[in-house]
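Training component of the fellowship. As part of building independent skills, the fellow (R.M.) carried out the full modelling exercise for a liganded target. The chosen ligand was 4'-deoxy-4'-aminopyridoxal-5'-phosphate. The inputs are recorded below so that the supervisory panel can assess the work.
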Amino acid sequence: MATLQELYTRASEVLPGGVNSSIRLNRAIGTPLYTSRSEGPYVWDVEGRKLIDMCCAHGAALLGHKHPAVVAAVQKAIEMGFLSCFETEYHERLARKLCELIPCADKVRFCSSGSEATLHLIRVCRAFTGRKKIIRFEGHFHGYHELIYIGGQPPEAAFPSNRSKPYIESPGIPEEFADLIIPVPFNDPEALKKAIRKHGEDTALVILEPVNYNSGCIKPEEGFLRLLRELTQEAGIILNFDEVQSAFKKSAGGAQTDFGIIPDVCTIGKALGGGLPLSAFCGRAEIMNMYKPVGNVQHSGTFNAHLIPVLAGLAFLEEVVKPEFYSHLQNLEKHLHGGLDELIRRHELNMVVPHHGARFNFILGRKTPAIRYEDTFCHDRELMLKICRGLWQRGVYFHDYGGGAVHHGYSVQHMEKDIDDVLGAFEDTIKDLKTDLQK
Ligand code: PMP
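Fellow's submitted model of the complex:
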């Protein structure tokens, strides 16, 4: 069996960086985690190490690995001949269940990734309003495509110029796309009002992560989502909650249920497919009916709503409505964060671990949760990598690519005993790094 390093070297000959997603190099361990199998809350790497998985596929493995309900769904699809490009009774059932759970969803369409979902929703919002601009929030992430990978997570050096000249987040994205993006600081009512006053008539949508897991688990401050709802309604702007990450993490109705604010449309991804590629975009019927063949907006795709993820998604939705699903996740949340907060207090560490449901972020260098993206600039990325390395050496896998205050999480198959092991490994790790962590 090859070692991680040997496989990394070989893979790099044929895959740029040895990976199929730029962030899969785990800088804490120095290679990508090449795995051989996964089950429940655990993954095994090619060197035979058994690790408690605290990445959980960046939030997609909320059911954990190899969940029996998903395995049965995949088997059923195999028996049916795993059709693609056809609709089945299961597509209708999945759509109906999702519309029952998600408050803003009168109608829904499915695709495979979160990025595809945001792309399609942006298009229909523009078609519906006849406007082009997008108001978005700093720190929030909505996928890697040209329409929106601008002005979200600028490096500190591109700050605050990001507000006058939105930062293009990858070479290759034409500058012209930036003319359509209006970045606004999150949780800043005055900046939001100003942006809507200035650009409202040209703005098709406001898009946001209702909980900004992608930059430190930043929650909306009291009243901010309500203000956003009122201002967008007044200005005829479509309010789009990007729930690719937040859906199902705390409740079956998404963050719109958690905070009681209903957007016009939303995107859902990650956990929805029970670990298989499935995403959705949904919303008010009059907007969703813009799509062909009812209206004239195009949404197509050979692999949209492939039968295997559709059946896995149905299995997932059957799990989340079981009463024990969220009570178990809530117990884990209480247990993990009670333990972490106690360790932070006892060892006087200069860090905070904000959480919302089954996902959380470490922010090093401050003791209270961030309110805006720039509050996370203190996060010591190199020190965080050392923590992740120490945890990995002790059998706990956190994925970090040095990209800021990234999110972590657990699944419904994690047990209290696993969380105890995580806490034990965390305490041993921080003891080694204590002087750095107290700064
Ligand atoms: N929106 C949000 C809020 C996300 O967190 C992500 C992925 N991290 C995306 C969109 C893009 O999803 P995907 O990686 O499936 O394209």
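The panel noted the following from the submitted structure. Residues 4-66+323-437 form a domain with the Aspartate Aminotransferase, domain 1 fold (CATH 3.90.1150.10). The radius of gyration is 21 Å.
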